[in-house]
């Protein structure tokens, strides 16, 4: 069984730096497990790794799509597995999109309908109606989806409509076995420290020109309905460009949503995968985790 190292954790927890550190030690390449970094032009708001930060380490699944394209967990599963299988060395998946990680590492089967055309009658309905329909048809799945994530609402309803089965049941009935020998290292730290890092990171994004980046995307024809603009750091600008919010208010919204997302990421990882946690802001604990990973690599190789 092929080995895969995963560096997971919430936003701003130090995943990028630690993944570079391990890639150097293990002569590995890095696969981005982020749902927004796949899009070209969405650099600042997604915290996309820069060429300088890469330090010469090969990275894949970054800047592979136009902002007008859609990208799903099924797409990530297919492309990430292709990257892993085609590389003789060790692959490191670095990212915080939990469903992407699980889709790649486990026997997560996606139905054909997920990639098929959505029924025309569903396309005619607004998001509020679609969400209400999903809450009735598949309540557990509805809890996982934001009411305005139209793409996922349509996909889940299409599965029910075409197969007669709830997506949540399909997922629950899978055996949840890993298809790789995966070591999952989870970056953590004191919650107050993480929230301060998030705040400073968002401030840095604004200084780097996040508003102008978002404006440029809109000028190119990207809209807030496109999948790429659903990510935190971009969707919060909608009321600003509608004249309903100030830039400072947008900044605070991004910080608030980032904190909330970090909390959800922690919860998801703790319940969904066997994570080896370490304090990413503690050099001694980083060294401990490094040793654990090297031992796993040498023992299982």
What does this protein structure show overall?
This protein is α/β, with parallel strands linked by helices. The chain folds into 2 domains: 3-109 and 175-300, P-loop containing nucleotide triphosphate hydrolases (Rossmann fold, 3-Layer(aba) Sandwich), CATH 3.40.50.300; 112-172, Histone, subunit A. It contains 14 helices and 6 strands. A 6-stranded parallel beta sheet has the order 3-2-4-1-5-6, sandwiched between helices. Strand 2, helix 2 (51-54) and strand 3 form a beta-alpha-beta unit. Helix 6 packs across helix 8 (150-163).
Please summarize what this structure is:
The chain has 301 residues and is an alpha/beta fold.
Q: Topology, please?
A:
Blueprint: E1 3-8, H1 15-26, E2 29-32, H2 51-54, E3 59-60, H3 73-85, E4 91-94, H4 98-105, H5 120-123, H6 127-137, H7 139-143, H8 150-163, H9 167-172, E5 181-188, H10 191-208, H11 210-219, H12 238-241, H13 247-272, E6 275-279, H14 283-300
Parallel strand pairs: 1-4, 1-5, 2-3, 2-4, 5-6
Helix pairs in contact: 3-4, 6-8, 10-13
